[in-house]
Amino acid sequence: MLCVGRLGGLGARAAALPPRRAGRGILEAGIRARRVSTSWSPVGAAFNVKPQGSRLDLFGERRGLFGVPELSAPEGFHAAQEKALRKAELLVGRACSTPPGPQTVLIFDELSDSLCRVADLADFVKIAHPEPAFREAAEEACRSIGTMVEKLNTNVDLYQSLRKLLADKKLVDSLDPETRRVAELFMFDFEISGIHLDKEKRKRAVDLNVKILDLSSTFLMGTNFPNKIEKHLLPEHIRRNFTSAGDHIIIDGLHAESPDDLVREAAYKIFLYPNAGQLKCLEELLSSRDLLAKLVGYSTFSHRALQGTIAKNPETVMQFLEKLSDKLSERTLKILR
After folding, report:
1. Does 307 fall in a domain?
2. Same domain? 25 vs 101
3. Of 123, 9, 23, which Cα lies nearest the Cα of 77?
4. Cα separation, 316 vs 308, whole angstroms
5. Which pLDDT band holds residue 16 (cuts at 50, 70, 90)?
6. Phi, psi for 249 (deg, rounded to 5)
7. How many CB atoms within 10 Å of residue 330?
8. Whether pLDDT at 53 is above 50
9. Is-contact 306 317, C-beta < 8 A?
10. Tell me, what DSSP letter sits at residue 72?
11. Which of 1, 2, 13, 229 has its CA 20 to 30 A from that of 327?
């Protein structure tokens, strides 16, 4: 309901997409709902303000990542996440106590935005920052926000505050089209997150979603790890193109830009060589997704993830992929001839 597809990702809308998008639920609608917000997040602001004067302030005050003062050190992520969580609790209380009306949707949007501001930034930093301490702090912030999100997805009182609004035809008719659509999207994410289940099953759904978040993050991070091979297994003229570490050669990418086809072949085969840990993580992730989908009433995770999208269902996706494959095959054969 509130902002996700991004906490690695946190997202329930991506059956056919990489695992990083799994398990976000409540935050997902916030991505869509955020259209009603008029303020920039720290990330957006950082990329939408013209630099004034010199871009490098080598000896000036350290302002923090993306201009956020708290993020001048890894510990700042904990402070930022705690601040967001405290604000979220206040907004949940306000949403549950406010009479149904347009203000309800605005509170939901503010709730989404307060969590997304931290989640989006942390999701980027945990992958892109060169310092391990920053990456670890950002990862913990992602997990903390993601856990809160999944709890909100199954918060009955929060759900009831929105249901009362949408059940009142007079109130719904008073909403402008955009606000009404945002409210419907929030409600949709409640429904696919298992709000209809009993208390025990709702807790199980939350636990599965959090597990999916962790597995998705682990799998995603693993895709960026380099692979290594013993030096003697590669000819000298090939291994000199890669980084050496003791008795091993480190392959950290596909080296697609190399003019030597043997170098490209070696990089491809070694970097993409099956990793037992990654395969185990992927299998557990897929199994958890399947359990979650069946728990909330879907035959497969794909059906759950595609509901409410332009594709609608896995059958439509498969038809599209098969047709695309056929068309591309025809063109490829023509080129090869």
Report:
1. no
2. yes
3. 123
4. 13
5. very low
6. -110, 130
7. 10
8. no
9. yes
10. G
11. 13
Between the alpha carbon of residue 12 and those of residues 5, 102, 200, 291, 308, the distances in Å are 7, 26, 21, 13, 11
Are the C-beta atoms of 7 and 146 separated by less than 8 Å?
yes
Strands 243-245 and 248-251: antiparallel
- pLDDT reported for residue 65: 76
The closest alpha carbon to 127, from 119, 118, 135, belongs to 135
**Same domain as 230, residue 178:** no
Q: Are residues 252 and 115 in the same domain?
A: no
Q: What is the bridge-based pairing of β-strands 248-251 and 227-230?
A: antiparallel
- On average, the pLDDT of the chain sits at 84
Note whether residue 299 is domain-resident: no
295 burial type by CB count under 10 A (0-12 exposed, 13-18 middle, 19+ buried) = middle
Say which residue the tokens 């956020």 belong to.
68
Between CA 162 and CA 188 the distance in angstroms is 11
Statement to judge: residues 188 and 257 lie in one domain: no
Please indicate, yes or no, if residue 36 is contained in any of the structural domains.
Answer: yes
Specify if 153 maps to a domain.
yes
3-class SS at 272? coil
Q: Which residue has the tokens 């990089």?
A: 267
The answer to whether residues 149 and 233 belong to one domain is no
Residues 19 and 144 in one domain: yes
Angular region, 288: left φ>0, alpha ψ -120 to 50, beta rest = alpha
**Shared domain check, 267 and 145:** no
The whole-angstrom separation of Cα 250 and Cα 241 is 10
**Is it the case that residue 2 has pLDDT exceeding 90?**
no
Quote the pTM value: 0.75
> Token digits for 305?
């993830």
Total number of domains constituting the chain: 2
Same domain, yes or no, for 7 and 21? Answer: yes
User: What letter would DSSP give residue 12?
Assistant: B
Q: Are 306 and 300 in contact (CB under 8 A)?
A: no
